[in-house]
Design goal:
The protein is of the alpha/beta class and 435 residues long. Helices cover 23% and strands 33% of the residues. Helix 8 packs across helix 9.
Amino acid sequence: MAEELRVSIAKLVYGGDGLGHAEGNTVFVPRVLPAEQLRTEVRARKKKTVWAKPLEILSASPHRIPAPCPHFGVCGGCHYQHIDFAEQTRQKIGILRETLSRLGGVSWPGEITPHTAQPYGYRNRAQWAVRSGMPRALGYFLPESSVIMPVDTCPVLSPRLAETFGLLQELARGGKLPNGILEIEAFSDSEDDKIALNVAFDAYPKPAAELSDFFRAELPRIESLLLLDQKKDRFELSGPGFLLHQAGGFSFRVSHLSFFQVNRFLIEELLAAVTKGVKGALALDLYAGVGFFTLPLARAFTKVISVDANLAATRDLYANAEAAGVEITTFNEHTEDYLKKPQERPDLVVLDPPRAGLGAEAAVKLVDLGAPEIVYLSCDPSTLARDLAVLTGSARKPAEIAATGPFYEITAMDMFDLFPQTFHIETLVRLRKLP
């Protein structure tokens, strides 16, 4: 018989679960809210730490609402559809503060300014796995599993992506989708009009030209199509190879394999917040991508240096800079390698790393570089806490700090809710070098 526990939820933690206590155990439960009482079933146990699933809400939070998506709770893509949107924002700010303090010893008593927009229909990019068994269907991998769950709807998608998904799902269930497809990725432009499609095959079942003709006939909004044959490590491109995004008065070319911000409603606001009030002789843009921050920086600084390891994104940045009529000094290499070399001290460093963050070693190099101001955009509070511990000198283990200082102090912090309904948190931190 399954073990049950009655749990009282104390708080939400980063990762989507609620943390509670029962019978001397620390219990993690998904799809709950603070102060709720519930009956749970134990799924896993490690000493006094338990992972459980909710069975019955005995005392519900006033912030609990019905989830609009019929797949919520099974799909795993969303974590907070049961929470009203204002409360999601409040909880994320609390989780951010707690994570920075607990993991990095970083205390920020000032305001964390929230930036929010429409909570649904925001995603301009999505990936769908294709189930090869019968009946064929598109869907998402279940959490911590290789099992693909077919879905009929996904309310976080933009209207154009939702339409594209619906057409692809009809093809799959009707037996018309070509065999051998592992994954399909779709990306819409800033107008949510045109689509770029990446289709990954185990192996092409037909000549690439026939496959391209099929997708273009079935999906008339396709602007550019990239097909991948994994067995032969071969790409076939049909179309220009990119879409255009307009933001901040600039036009950004974004290729099939380049990154661009996913929340179509907050792109302008994010760009303005990062580049607000900055100017000087030299700016350094780390993890520059297609030049989202680089181009506006080039209008405010005499010289801008961009660094990114993604060759496709670097090529896009060249094209975007040329179209904007600005000059950029570009390095196609990893930020960690770039910072190991002697550099001229910049007036400003902007960095937007992936979830792995900057890393302690690179953070030390950044401290030693000594820019008067750093603007750090993070998509993971855990790695942000580690990096800020080095940048501010609050790292608890002496071995983690090899920097000579002076260190930095935080002057402002913003929380951008780029992924509503999920636990993900985007944080913008401004730092000033201490005298």
